Fold:
Amino acid sequence: MQILIFEENEEIKKKLICEINIILPNNNIISNCTKLKQLPNWLLFNYKPDLIIASLDNCSKLFLHNFVNLTKNIPLIILSNNKTFAIQAINMGAVHFLLKPIKTSYLQEAFKRVAALIINKNENHKLDILEPQIQKKYLIRIGSQIKVLEDEEIAYIFIQNKIVYIVTIENRKYTSNYSLDKFEKTLDPTLFYRINRQYIIKINCIKKMQPASKQRIALSIEPSATTKIYTSFERTPAFKKWIQQ
Structure:
């Protein structure tokens, strides 16, 4: 599931991303839109996310009205320090409004509302609160031949120079037409985890873990990767939870 987060305050954004990754660990978070005035154009010219979480502290009522209209087909959770925004946002069509500072329990409730909305509209997109669609086999091309690769053969998947590679437990490497986002949605989340933007790894291919910083972990995997691998800042809390399941 693609979640677009807009928050101009970098520290608040990092904390929010960590909270979301704990509640919904296997989702793809987009947070590269950093200016309020850029947000409408970003939505017009980029792939539409499944959910938008937007902090709108400094916007006018007109901007709020136009923004909600622009996102009317996408579930929208609005965050703000302004209490008067709550009634306005809900009346204009936002799914939920959260007053800062955000409490985890309120964020969980907001996600439940989004899930209920998706179910009621009979949409195909589902939050990880719902049962994921697990895929056990994948087709890969080897020259002029097509091979069926089972998930139990996969050690990890990574992207390099815009090409997605699958590495097997026998250290064979194949290219794939699937994106990392697609693999993340279809692989068994109890066995595979996306540790950063470049890598999805299987739990039993992890051979060693070391703290790399306060919020990152260095991983040694087998078969060995060609570069050093670290969990991303945003995904480390959820990774710790996943590894202990």
Remarks:
- The radius of gyration is 19 Å.
- The first strand starts at residue 2 and ends at 6.
- The mean pLDDT is 84.
- The longest helix spans residues 104-120.
